[in-house]
User: Fold this.
Amino acid sequence: MKNITDSFVSLSHWPSAGSFGFNTDILATNLINLSVVLGVLIYFGKGVLNDLLDNRKQRILSTIRNSEELRRGAVEQLERARARLRKVEMEADEYRRNGYSEIEREKVNLINATSDSLERLENYKNETLHFEQQRAINQVRQRVFQQALQGALGTLNSCLNSELHFRTISANIGILRAMEEITD
Assistant:
């Protein structure tokens, strides 16, 4: 037995560079170090891990409660919407029943209004035609009067000599002065 311990003791004094041997230093071995680290983590980390898990559990439970409340609210809204839908459907049926007579009444009113509008447009058209006819007649009259006046002036100018022309102008000037004195 002494030989075995001596062999371990003699191995512990070997230089570590370039040689193979057993490490008798307990703190230097990986397996022991790992078990110590894991033990410390489990001992001290257990409380932190429990707190984290408890917090997560509380958040999940509050989320579930909130979801349940939202679901209840959604169910209530759905019931209100269904009741409103039934009410609207009943009103729609009533409107359908009463609507046909209203549609007929509106149709008659629309036809009457359209007829009145057409009658007004016809009257406006007739007035416009009459106005345009009167305007055309007046233009023709002015044109005929201008041509007759030009013809008469042409005839007078060709028939009048300068002395007769001078007397006519003097007479017209005298008439204009007499009219001017009367108006003053």
